What does this fold into?
Amino acid sequence: MDIRQNNHPANRLAYASSPYLLQHAHNPVDWYPWGDEAFAKARAENKLVLVSIGYSSCHWCHVMERESFENEAIAALMNAHYVCIKVDREERPDVDHVYMTAVQLMTQRGGWPLNCFTLPDGRPVYGGTYFPPVHWGHVLTDLQRVWSNDPKRLIEHAERLRKGVIAANVVEPPEEDGPFTGEVLRDMVKKWADRWDPVHGGPDHAPKFPMPNNLEFLLRYARTVGDARTERHVRLTLDQMAFGGLYDQIGGGFARYSTDIRWKVPHFEKMLYDNAQLISLYAQAHQAFGDPHYKRVVERTIGFVTREMTGPDGAFFSALDADSEGVEGLYYTWTREELAQVLGQEFDLAAAYYNVDATGLWEHGRYILLRTTDDATFAASFGIGEEELRERIRAIDERLMEVRSTRVRPGLDDKALTSWNALMVKALCEAYEVFGEKTWLEAALRNMRLLLTQCRSPEGGLLHTSKNGKAAINGYLDDHAFVIEALVALYGVTFDETWLHHAERLAEFTIIHFMDEESGAFHFTSRLDPPLIARPLEMHDNVLPASNSSMAKGLFLLGHLFDNERYLSISNDLLALALPGIAAHPSAHSNWAQLLLAHAYPFHEIAIMGPDALALHKGFARHYIPNRLFLGSNTASTLPLLKDKPADTNAIFVCLEKTCALPVNTVEAALGQLR
It folds into this structure.
């Protein structure tokens, strides 16, 4: 190839669309993208394969690239003895899942960069995460020596690993269905509470990830059963996350995780999936508690996504890097001298408000802006009114943003992932439902229309990723499941049944192409995809919900909306598969637990009919109702629960288990029926 940059010839990654692969396009390593070409070369030359997996905003991926993959001597060793494949884990989560499982089986730990060596047929033989350059050189040399001198040893080891990876992706049906009861949830929360941090919120260890699903379940559970201790933990965690360095105090948006227990020092990368789910969480928390700070968090986080992570066509980008100019956090942190010069007379107020002191000091004389108290308490201690404080801080933030925008910005990963975009659509719907900001609904509608047109596959499913108007890669289970949930959320704030029919068609496609009839669970990859050494299957909720738990929730909601017993049965079977995990590993099954909550306690369908159906729906915005589903229409409807109800008169029907109470015409009266 004669594409060149800084006098280095480009490798095969130069033609990729992934920003992560393009970051490696001018390494001296002869990288291949994932595909048949690389493995065909490995088989023809009888070479081991290196599958190196990362993502564009991964700090230690950048470090290993600088230390090893840009090192001419190390690259020569890699090129001589291995066929080297670079994988963007966000583009190919299926590949990442398989080789992450293999590395975890070998080392009992995982992370990124993920480096897994395989036989020429893709079976893993050795792997790990970040390797310092000297260690990496030894690995390359020693593994090649074994392959040359004793290949049988590696082949036997690879076959054992392959069987282990397959076994890790098998879900055994339960011998009998467990009870979907509140007792299971009470035991789960009691066990979980032993691991909560009573001072700073969140888990009792570092690093601390926001884990929105955990907090959303705990909030719903606490309100449903009246658990004051759990509710205090949720509020403490929400407050501390939003006050700490995890949250970008002047620009909005959350970093990926905190490296310490106080939420002070973030890993500065910003991911769309975190911010989308945290918008949903803080919107619900505002509805539950009425805290104006939560509203500002929602507004500013949506503002951040709109400003920095939204394309001209309405697609939402994936991530912002932690580093700029090769230094982590440089874009977001300040020295006292910089702040004093920029803010002048307002420096004292800003320094006190944002803790430019020992509390906020990080490293190299730079400060992370963070808060330790609410506005009312701070204003009183500073001797000014709350309104004056807010106005002055607003002006301070604007000035700091103006100066910060002149800095070298962190790298942007501008690919749009269908699953993460769906999370953002759902978040915008939930924020709109609470606050009524029309531009948020418009952004959600625009994005969903894009997903359902640009990202549709010829077979009727979804494509996984898009960039510059071009979509690619067959969609995975999370793409379909998250879009189904987003479509239901869109229906819930528009009462436009078109969205439900889109969701129904996607559900049918997913059942046909992803479902394992033996276990009842859904594979992560479609039957239409080329096979890997194992077919991944997600059951554990993590920072992202497990695709199976999302599918179970989506089918539960569609089952109620369409009175579809088949959907409800599939959802129930999935929940039964997850029930042992809910009891054994609470924090890894919180999205499942949200579904269990809907079984264990009354789940209300609130049907609103009449010319003012949407206006009546808005009347519920100030009321947090965790176990409910809104549906309605201002015209005749085909939905089973609505089709016999007149649309010429305003009426609210509170329904439970297919039985509706007498209609009422005010929100207050309906709330009385819910009590």
The longest helix spans residues 565-584. The first strand starts at residue 4 and ends at 5.
